[in-house]
Design a protein that fits this description.
alpha+beta; four-stranded mixed β-sheet; 32 helices
């Protein structure tokens, strides 16, 4: 910003010119002394010195008057012939910000598109740096007369800051517009009364996200709440509106576009909301609106059906997987906390567009290098594409480049070759011995390998240093169950739920499954009381809660109470998996993809593995494609089911998926059923869908040595599973011939696993 000088200067321009002329050629000046250039023009633009001697320019420089300097240079340009000096003059005059004069912020006010306002603003992302805009008189949104040009910049608080007034030459573009705008003013004045009613525009802004959005509409800033249709009236005569959307407080918008100035315009932010409209004379006639911006008929009503999840589901139902993937990806990139949107985009891309899925996974580490959840998503995509080595090559350099980041170190360990994962996590904890996330990561490995006592020590140390997430709580609950500390697990769930911010559907399901395992005598809460209020009166969620927590007595009447037909059919199939597995498997190939996508991952795993075992590859592939988790786990699951082969990455799979593989393998190899049943019980202590489907309950433990107690004596453990298997399992008669292989027994500190013991 240039400030007018308050120092007295001598107007002796003839003496200055003589002094410039007498300068020696071997030492040309690039900056004038302060008394000849008090405002420092030649310091900011040294090329000005090459234009001297020039009487008018020297006087303007000596006065420190930016407008006078601009006028002298403009006059010089008008008479300067073609040549190097003319190019120099054009270059200097092109630097408009050089001729800025400090002054008080000018008056800006407007009402209904009329008043003194800014015109010619650049795109929002270009407003973070200095730019020049015109202050003009507007009438009903149309600029009529320019009042001056100013240097502006948008500050961190989102407000425009006026840095000063910019000199305007007689030949500038803004000056040449005056006659055109004046003519427009005369024409508009004659027709203003007739046009005014038609200049009113109605803009509906819809927010399909779960958080507020700040929308800038033609210079006006509006806040749209989640799930809201914000109706706003503005004025215009056909010019498009410049619209931007950003999160509150964010410096940059996540969407910028132009919206046509129609009589009723809808702007669906990022296309995330699922919208429908209907004509008032025929309310039953509805149509979905799939685009971001469109014009709504004057006699139509607008309704919001749901957020981005509903919109993605609609696109898939309409047979537009590419559009659905693009929308889910855009939602995720705009708001990385919407990890489910990223997983849905990845799932669709892995199935239908493998090349795009690979690029998506590659760009995530660069866009979100510090986000652990995003990193895990990228790795799951690469694993599903059988590109685990690519994941390691992406994340190992990131960890080495930032040796102080425990998050990047954990991501690199997670992407390591499966046979090296144990050592990789152990090294992370050695480097960061006080990091709770490193403790929990290694505890998960210890539990997978069958050492709950060692895992519990790490989890207790981590809890003393940092609070748990829901995922961390589930890990601790599984460890406590494996360590025969079921009451302590129940206490942990109750304590976690006591904080209102922790209430969620996933916590309620975890608590319900634990209550079923613990029994009334060791449960510290009523499971249904943990269902959040938003779901407590929903027939769909109440039926799902009953099925997912082991209550197969859901009646047809309860299922018929579910309004959504897709959800109702998915829940009916889930009940069939628990009550009549054979009928569920026969039903799955005829089930539509929209229904299969609503199954929980454990139920889908059972169906996919059994269909694969029976050779129905196409149907199995459809079920595997219902979630990214299943796509990433497909290879090791199928390897175990087909031959009992334990691939190195098998121990990293979620416990419920491992249990499904054990029990489907047991259906194919009857002689090994007791072994697989035992592995299923020990892998999934929470009794997930696989154990419910085949009635694999926890028997009374047999005699074994415990580090805390001397001995415990109970009936042999394999009798109960054997009886239950033939009643609720395959339905086959007891096999003839040699007896089944006996179930492995727990000895010492390790719970048996189908892979060699580690850490010893």
């Amino acid at each position: 910003m240039l400030k007018e000088s308050t120092q007295p200067v001598s107007p002796g321009s003839a003496e200055q010119a003589q002094a410039f002329a007498s300068l020696p050629e071997q030492a040309p000046l690039t900056v004038l002394p302060p008394e000849s250039d008090p405002s420092g023009f030649t310091e900011r633009a040294p090329v000005l010195v090459s234009l001297l001697p020039d009487d008018a320019l020297a006087q303007a420089l000596a006065r420190g008057d930016a407008l006078a300097v601009h006028g002298a240079l403009s006059a010089r340009l008008a008479r300067e012939p073609s040549g190097p000096l003319r190019g120099t003059l054009q270059e200097i005059l092109g630097n408009r910000s050089l001729f800025t004069v400090a002054e008080s912020p000018p008056h800006i006010a407007g009402f209904l598109g009329t008043g003194i306002q800014w015109v010619g603003l650049p795109a929002p992302e270009a407003q973070q740096t200095q730019f020049i805009a015109t202050r003009a008189i507007r009438l009903l949104g149309v600029p009529l007369w320019p009042l001056g040009e100013h240097l502006l910049q948008r500050g961190r608080d989102g407000q425009l800051q006026v840095l000063g007034r910019v000199a305007v030459g007689s030949s500038s573009l803004a000056t040449r517009r005056v006659s055109y705008l004046a003519l427009g003013a005369l024409m508009l004045a004659s027709a203003g009364a007739a046009l005014a009613p038609f200049a009113v525009r109605e803009v509906h802004i819809t927010n399909g996200f779960s958080r507020p959005i700040e929308v800038s509409l033609d210079g006006e800033h509006l806040t749209v709440e989640p799930g809201q249709i914000f109706q706003h009236q503005t004025y215009g005569l056909g010019e498009p509106y410049l619209v931007t959307a950003r999160w509150p407080g964010a410096a940059r918008p996540f969407e910028t576009l132009e919206v046509e100035s129609n009589q009723r315009t809808i702007y669906n932010v990022l296309g995330a909301a699922s919208l429908s409209w209907n004509r008032q004379p025929e309310p039953s006639t509805q149509a979905s609106l799939p685009d971001r911006v469109y014009s709504l008929p004057s006699d139509a009503g607008l309704a919001l059906k749901g957020g981005w999840e509903t919109r993605v589901r609609d696109e898939l139902n309409w047979g537009h997987p590419s559009t659905a993937a693009a929308l889910a990806k855009a939602v995720f990139l705009a708001d990385p906390s919407q990890i489910e949107a990223g997983r849905e985009a990845a799932r669709i891309l892995v199935q239908d567009q493998a090349r795009e899925a690979l690029w998506f996974a590659r760009e995530l580490p660069q866009a979100f290098p510090e986000d652990l959840a995003v990193g895990q998503l990228a790795q799951d995509v690469l694993i599903a594409l059988d590109e685990r080595s690519v994941a390691f090559k992406l994340y190992e350099p990131l960890a080495k480049a930032d040796p102080d980041s425990v998050g990047k170190a954990l991501l690199a360990a997670r992407a390591a070759p499966p046979e090296q994962v144990r050592d990789a996590y152990a090294r992370v904890l050695e480097r960061f011995p006080e990091a709770p996330e490193a403790m929990r990561a290694l505890a998960r490995i210890h539990l997978a390998d069958g050492y709950p006592s060692e895992a519990l020590k790490l989890l207790e140390a981590a809890l003393a240093k940092a609070p748990e997430s829901l995922e961390d709580l589930e890990l601790r609950v599984r460890v406590l169950i494996a360590a025969d500390e079921v009451r302590a697990a129940s206490v942990a769930v109750k304590k976690f739920h006591n904080e209102p911010r922790h209430a969620s559907w996933e916590l309620a399901v975890l608590a319900g499954r634990l209550a079923r395992i613990a029994g009334p005598g060791r449960t510290q809460y009523v499971a249904r009381d943990l269902i959040p209020p938003a779901f407590a009166n929903s027939p769909e969620h109440l039926v799902a809660f009953a099925l997912l927590t082991g209550d197969s007595s859901v009646s047809d009447k309860e299922l018929n109470g579910v309004a959504d037909p897709v959800a109702r059919e998915a829940l009916t199939l889930t009940r069939a998996v628990i009550k009549d597995f054979e009928s569920a498997v026969k039903r799955a190939p005829q089930t539509e993809d929209t229904v299969l996508r609503r199954l929980d991952p454990e139920t889908a795993t059972l169906l996919a593995l059994e269909l694969s075992r029976r050779g129905e590859k196409e149907a199995a592939s459809r079920v595997f494609g219902t979630s990214l988790t299943l796509l990433a786990a497909r290879a090791p699951l199928l390897a175990y089911v087909s031959s009992g082969a334990v691939r190195p990455e098998f121990f990293l799979l979620p416990p419920g998926l491992q249990a499904a593989a054990y029990l489907i393998h047991a259906r194919a190899f009857e002689q090994n059923r007791l072994v697989d049943q035992s592995y299923a019980r020990w892998a999934d202590g929470l009794g997930g869908m696989a154990r419910q489907a085949f009635g694999i309950k926890d028997p009374e433990p047999t005699m074994w040595r415990d580090p805390k107690y001397e001995f415990r004596e109970h009936p042999p453990r394999h009798h109960a599973p054997l009886i239950i298997w033939h009643i609720r399992g395959s339905g086959l008669p007891p096999p003839e011939g040699p007896p089944p292989t006996p179930a492995p027994e727990r000895t010492g500190a390790r719970i048996p696993r189908p892979w060699p013991a580690t850490w010893r």
